[in-house]
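Lecture notes, part 5. Sequence design as translation. It can be helpful to think of inverse folding as translation between two languages: the language of shapes and the language of residues. The source text, in structure tokens, appears below.
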């Protein structure tokens, strides 16, 4: 139900037009939040080691070690970070 095609009425076109589903907009908002957190963590750094990244996530996001690990895994899942190249992780797309 939440992932199917969605339509809304467009008065200019005087017909129903397709629009983004609620699930897509929620997913996009989640990715934007993750991207902002990643940018805060990397700040001016180009790359960092996993341990350094985890400790920085803990201090910047004020979260536990386990939550920091989950955030890093989400960044990997959405390709917001890439690596490790020479044991360093960089910002992705």
């Amino acid at each position: 139900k939440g992932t199917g095609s969605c339509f809304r009425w467009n008065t200019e076109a005087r017909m129903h037009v397709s629009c983004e589903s609620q699930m897509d907009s929620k997913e996009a908002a989640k990715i934007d939040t993750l991207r902002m957190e990643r940018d805060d963590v990397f700040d001016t750094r180009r790359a960092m080691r996993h341990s350094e990244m985890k400790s920085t996530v803990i201090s910047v996001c004020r979260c536990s070690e386990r939550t920091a690990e989950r955030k890093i895994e989400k960044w990997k899942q959405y390709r917001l970070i890439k690596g490790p190249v020479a044991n360093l992780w960089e910002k992705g797309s």
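The translated text above is only one of many valid answers, since several sequences can fold into similar shapes. The two ends are 30 Å apart (CA to CA).
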